[in-house]
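Please check this chain.
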Amino acid sequence: MPYIIDGHNLIPKLPGLDLQDIDDELKLIELLQTFCQRARRQAEVYFDNAPPGFARGQHFGAVTAHFVRQGTTADAAIQRRLERLGKTAKNWTVVSSDGQVQAAARALRAHYISAETFAQTLLKVSREAPTENERAVWDGLSQAEVDEWLELFGGDGERE
């Protein structure tokens, strides 16, 4: 079952993430990528207050990040998404602790869980040992490729 996630609602529930960090959204997306790969799920995550000219959706593997333009909210974008899903909304799980978002999910018979509950699941799955496929990907990359990815995505060069 795929997820629709209220990103800025989830970030404060995760240790090490802070809404004041400049790269909080990217850090969440990275956690969600690992989760989706290991849980074999897809997720759409919505973030408020996209800078001018940056409002759009971006694909990060099984995670699609929607950066919602200023003047509207992620909550409203999630509600519109659920409405577009219509009867198929029942096949999705909405992650938010916001009462209005949960009410929209309930009205369209989508499943919903609180950000706190999902954060626990996300952390548990993220802490599991890497799968054989994940190790194969890392093992197949040269150090130059790893360095290039780290430079592109702002990593610190440390690898566990």
About this structure: Residues 24-39 form the longest helix (16 residues). Strands lie at 3-6, 43-50, 56-60, 63-69, 93-95, 111-113.
